[in-house]
Design goal:
The protein has 380 residues and is of the alpha/beta class. It contains eleven helices and eleven strands. Helix 8 packs parallel to helix 11 and helix 9 crosses helix 11.
Length: 380
């Protein structure tokens, strides 16, 4: 089956930006400064300006960014880190690799983000950090999370891999970009992200100069200067070619976001008219940058039937995520049971993400929604 409508269309985006990206790549090739070239410094500065954040330290990928953040905060073997159960594995994985203990919290049924009202009951004397993951493009309840962290003297590490460019609009943090509210923010530049390179890439950002200095050392083998190893570190850097590509795309990020929001508005209008489809809720205090446009169906069976119907009609749809992390074999040692996180379990059974990217046209969304309407009738 030929896929006409992809979940993300990187080829179309490249073709639109080809006249900017190709010279940027060629400039790096001509200079042959492939590691820590000027483009890396330019990107770090440009992203810091975009985020209104004091320090941006590029690294090799978003998972490394989380690991470096945990290391920079001095978390020790056995310390507990609160993470969402409905999520990609990176936050739990990096905690486990560092011999920290991931402590899962259930999702909010509307926004899909970590349910801030459930966090406090999971805090123990060993708890050291909360990792709010801004899922699918919108904010967690940062005002509540920061208040809990302050009350219990905890660090907050924002995983902003899916929501770069989203902004708080009301309340204590109005005007703040996601990722700049907690002690440390992390992000990924995986190609499919809203700001994506053409390989792997990531960044750590913070307004705390002392934390930034430690992050910088850790990402560079623990070095303060060459061959002067002050702490145990790792080797994690954004290469110059990827930085050159990101410099181009950063200039278009607001344009990308507007295109995604426009496509989402069209989805909203058309899908809200179809019985059996729940369109994405919006957090009331932030913008939504729609890394994913994720709907809910009435049951797992209807979700799966619709997914197959879409595929048969050339529409790629994806399930993010098919199983809650507490049920994954890798985390069985934590001792959670099947019914511990009921909202996460239900979401895993009912969610379906539709094509969403910066090149999606209104007529594409109209056609996809037409196929969805027909598919829902089939599954009824």
């Amino acid at each position: 089956m030929e896929i006409k409508y992809q979940i993300v269309d990187l080829q179309a985006q490249y073709q639109r930006l080809k006249k900017e990206i190709d010279p940027a790549i060629q400039e790096v090739l001509d200079a042959s400064n492939f590691i820590n070239g000027e483009q890396v410094k330019k990107f770090a500065s440009g992203l810091a300006g975009f985020l209104d954040c004091k320090h941006v330290i590029p690294c090799a990928n978003g998972t490394d960014a989380l690991q470096i953040a945990f290391m920079a905060l001095g978390l020790q073997h056995g310390d507990e880190v609160i993470v969402p159960a409905f999520n990609y594995v990176a936050a739990a994985e990096t905690a486990a690799l560092l011999q920290l203990k991931p402590v899962f919290v259930d999702a909010d049924p509307e926004t899909f983000n970590i349910d801030a009202s459930l966090i406090e009951k999971t805090i123990s004397p060993k708890t050291k950090a909360i990792v709010p993951v801004h899922l699918f493009g919108q904010t967690c309840d940062m005002e509540a999370i920061m208040a809990i962290a302050e009350k219990h003297n905890l660090y907050v590490v924002e995983d902003n891999a899916q929501a770069i460019g989203a902004k708080i609009t009301t309340g204590k943090y109005a005007g703040k970009m996601l990722g700049t509210i907690g002690h440390i923010g992390t992000t990924s530049f995986f190609p499919s992200k809203n700001l994506g390179c053409m390989g792997d890439g990531g960044a750590v950002y913070t307004n705390d100069s002392a934390i930034a200095a430690v992050v910088q050392k850790i990402a560079n083998h623990g070095q303060k200067q060459k061959y002067d190893y002050e702490i145990v570190g790792t080797n994690s850097r954004l290469d110059t070619l990827q930085a050159a590509i990101l410099n181009v795309k950063l200039n278009h990020l607001e344009e990308f976001t507007a295109a995604r929001q426009k496509a989402a508005a069209t989805y909203d209008e058309l899908l809200s008219q179809i019985e059996g489809i729940e369109i994405p809720e919006r957090a009331s205090n932030s913008t939504h940058v729609f890394h994913q446009y994720t709907i809910k169906l009435e049951s797992e069976e209807k979700r799966n039937v619709l997914k197959c119907q879409l595929f048969e009609n050339g529409v790629q749809a994806m399930i993010y995520y098919p199983q809650s992390l507490h049920l994954q074999k890798a985390y069985s040692y934590l001792g959670y049971a099947q019914g511990d996180f009921p909202v996460s379990n239900v979401l895993c059974q009912r969610v379906l993400s539709l094509p969403m990217h910066s090149e999606l046209k209104a007529e594409d969304v109209v056609e996809i929604c037409k196929i969805i309407k027909e598919g829902v009738l089939v599954s009824s």
